[in-house]
Design a protein that fits this description.
The chain has 78 residues and is mostly helical. The protein has one domain. 83% of the residues lie in helices and 0% in strands. The protein is built from 5 helices and no strands. The radius of gyration is 16 Å and the shape is flat. The N and C termini lie far apart (51 Å).
């Protein structure tokens, strides 16, 4: 129960400080973190197919964070 409150607390804190895009970006990392956690704590199998998930999640975060504000970058280029 406590981790749930901690997770929601951090969710709302980041939402308030950084905005919706930052919070949505972090949602891409939930599955990779869960897969690693399951492998470390529960001894679940972590093979090549499982490792592809974190790579895709991290790539999505990089793509979203690089294109943070296209309007501001367009205005700066003028």
């Amino acid at each position: 129960m406590l981790p749930t409150f901690g997770g929601y607390g951090l969710y709302w804190l980041i939402l308030r400080r950084s905005g919706l895009t930052e919070v949505s970006t972090l949602m891409f990392l939930m599955s990779p973190v869960t897969a690693v956690w399951g492998a470390l704590m529960l001894g679940e199998h972590f093979g090549v197919q499982t490792a592809i998930g974190p790579v895709v999640g991290l790539a999505a975060v990089v793509v979203v964070r690089r294109g943070r504000n296209p309007v501001a970058s367009l205005a700066a280029s003028r």
